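debug: dumping io for the single-chain case to check the tokenizer round-trip. Nothing else runs in this session.
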Amino acid sequence: MNEQQATIRFLKAMAPTVIETHISMIFLDEHYAYKLKKALTLPFVDFSQSRQRLLSCQDELRLNRRTAADLYLEVLPIYRSSGGQLSFEDNGTEAVDAVLKMRRFDSRLLLSKLAEQQQLNQGMMNELADTLATFHQQAAIANDPQGAQRLRAVIELNRRSELLVNQSLGHQRMSELNQALLQDTAQHAELLDHRAAAGKVRRCHGDLHLNNICLWQDQPTPFDCLEFNESMATTDILYDVAFLLMDLWHYQQYDLANFLMNRYLDAQDETEGLVLLPLFMSLRASIRAMVLAIQATNTSNDTEAAKYRQQAEQFLDLAFNLLQGTSPQLIAIGGLSGSGKSTLAAAIAPFIGTAPGARVLSTDRIRKKLFGIKAEARLPAESYTAAHSTRVYHKQRELSSATLASGYSVIADGVFAKVAERNAIEDCATQATTPFTGIWLLAPAPELIQRVAKRSNDPSDATVDVVTMQLNLDLGEIHWHQLISQQSTQTLGEQALALIKLQQKEVQ
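debug: decoded output
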């Protein structure tokens, strides 16, 4: 760092506010941020030479423009004149250093800050899921079939700090966790390798947590990707998403974690990989625990050290909890349009199965996907013929069976107006030998009509006329548990979860 003192003075004179991380210094003026790589060498990075720092800035610009082109502006080499003065003007000499120029944003709009203030919402998660799905579809594929080995390498890297972490926390739980992670990786090695061979390992973001996503022009915008280590950032795309899901779970934003997962999977079908999410999330939590435990050791402030240790313990607890697998089950929620099926599904999904909760398969969303349009876009009436509806319910059963086979729980959300449709979804659970709970939601006709009339920007295209038509249908005998939906979502959710728990006990 001594060799950079003149550079630091030059940047401070221009942008006096400084934020420091373990490998960078960020200089802020009113409108821009200038990021300087520290001249250092660590096990995972070498910034000791000015040329390496320049190349790293160029990599960071290129890679972050994939998701945040408006924020990442240019790389500015720093030159020294014959008189020893530093400037951004090219004077024909070799650059002594370089900075990455970025547009400054309001730090209060970091998703981590919004999570602390309980200001995250489904709209943000919907947009973020679409952004990530598109990003992963376009990311460069790694020509490497060794998916399991990649994950083992991450765990082994963690183990190098195991002794230090155990000493910091005063117990051996990190050692136990690493062993559990290795065992889980071995259990899923075939699937991990299959996904790698199928092109699911890509050059991802690599550091996708809430503090690296901001609201820019009202859009959730991932930034600050892991640019300095290709190997660490080249991962299974679900491992990339898992960091964000784990972070939301840590902030106790269970509903949003489940919502984000489901919207991502609607856009990017990763059904076979779902069973890996608990392992991926647990590994992400273990890395957070390791970093915090080491920070506790490296600080001389006792209060700060105690805070870091407490946080490390929280992430350790989370990592262990995420590995506690549960058996899959199928829940079907039926009822006429406006009865609150999708609202109930979203409310209970985080609490069904392993974190981040059940896969919600909605006929409304499946129909839009089959027609190749966004869930909130409207379809014409001819898209709702009997033949089209048969195709939609068939696709829902197909996805339900595949998800159950992967070891993951499902909530099937649809009208299920026909006895045959209800029997068919129940057969999915029978064939998968998993517990089934059918829930039928009831509401008075005026309530159904009022709810549907108020809808906007909704995946359902149902109108008041559709509700009127449904009210005249012969629904046949309904054997599912019937609940009145004209009550609070929390109360209805508690009733539904109690029924599901009871059903599980009866099966056992």
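debug: round-trip ok. The chain has 20 helices and 17 strands.
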